[in-house]
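Please discuss these two lines.
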Amino acid sequence: MPEVIKLIFKDNSVIIELDNSEKLKVSYEAYSMYKIRSGLNLTVECYSELQEESQKLGCKEKALNLLAVRARSVEETRRFLNRKNFSDMHIEETIDFLKQKGYLNDYEFSLSYIRAKMKSGRSGKDMIIRDLYRKGIGRKIIDKTIRESGADVSDEESVFEFAMKKFMSVKDKEDSLMKVSNFLRGRGFDYETINKVLRRIKSDFNE
């Protein structure tokens, strides 16, 4: 069994260097509990448990680093950790920890995501809903946050401004209004709002 040759103390963790070139990063609590010291020959049981502790801490740190970049849904975080080859048990323990700390909250994430998309004015309700589904948000949360954010009612003026930018780039082409219509539909805007906007463009440019 490997021998501990060096201990490196970080903020709330300890890196255990072993004579087999392996490095195990564990919490300070785990280090204290197992009474780790330089020169200690690890038993089979202790070695196995320290590896487990290292995996657990690694999973948590990877998730926290991910969320430090930007907010994610629960399912996005789970998929990320799966790609990093952590065990299902460690992933679910990490997910539970992050929920308890308030770092993962699908309702808050969904509401924030919708508001950001609405502010940009480049995405309609249908596209927002599709995006949230892809991120693993459940139907009940999507329906609730769509209503609470006001995304179920299109802002005609914002859509008109967005449509005008597209129209100006295609107005000299054949079927320009159809191109604008298809563009807006592809961005998730509803047919009623699209038709109103197209009528305004047609009126303004005598199309």
User: Anything to note?
Assistant: The longest strand covers residues 4-9. The chain has ten helices and three strands. Strands lie at 4-9, 13-18, 23-27. The first helix runs from residue 28 to 33.
